[in-house]
Amino acid sequence: MNPSYIIITDNSPFYPENYKWGDQKSDIGVIAFSTHILNIVKTYTAAVIDGQIYIDQSISNKLNSEDKLIPVHYLESLNGLEENFILDRKIIIGKKVKLSVDAEARHKISAAHSMTHFMSLALNKAANKYWNKNYDTDSLGNFNLDKASIFKSSISELQSIDIYRFGKSIKKKGFDKAAFLQDIDSVNEEINLTLKNWLSVGSEIQVEYISKNIEDLRLWKSTVENHPVVIPCGGTHIKNTEEIKDVKVEINSGESDEYIEIITHCKLR
Ligand SMILES: [Zn+2]
Q1: What is the Å distance from ligand 1's center to 97 Cα?
Q2: What mean pLDDT comes out for the span 26-48?
Q3: Which positions fall inside the Threonyl/alanyl tRNA synthetase SAD domain (predicted)?
């Protein structure tokens, strides 16, 4: 296996993959210094504690408030500079660098992330009638099936794959899984129709920050059918649904009858 490298900078515009809930694919891009340009192929979250660096899964679940999380840039190759680095690490350490995020890739990922939020609201709406007990509701007043059953989410360029789990606990919460799964094709159709309607009117999207710290809560805000909608989210997003040309949701069966997979595809204008 080839060695790989990480570069840490004082500041970075790169979106790192979240180490706890790694739903959104991280930024890629380039780092430029003196006459060199190197490819950044992934960005992880890291914590620096007492001079030690902990990356991604090695970050402890119990961080202190003063432990800062930072993005670390991951490189697969130094483009032939390996020798230079071995001879003189100061070739980059302490130097000014220019970090550039691949804006097109980021835009496509942001589009997929925003659309998966709308999909979750459309899913909750279509699934509302399958609840026979009260449960938490979303911003549109529908029971929040997404919150109750989301298992894993993988958001990449123009596509989000969301796995939902319908185990014993969701049944206890009052959700009629059997009836829902029996009607899954019509649920799928309804979600697509709902999203089409929602997209026919442009809606602004905002991300509200408490601070720019990676670990602080952020809120995704938009409007659906004249209702403000809010979802807690640490990801990146498009600014308006007008940027989306088309969205299509495809529901597949999962690895067992406890799971379903929802793929949200979107196209940009
Ligand atoms: Zn999100």
Answers
A1: 30
A2: 95
A3: 231-256
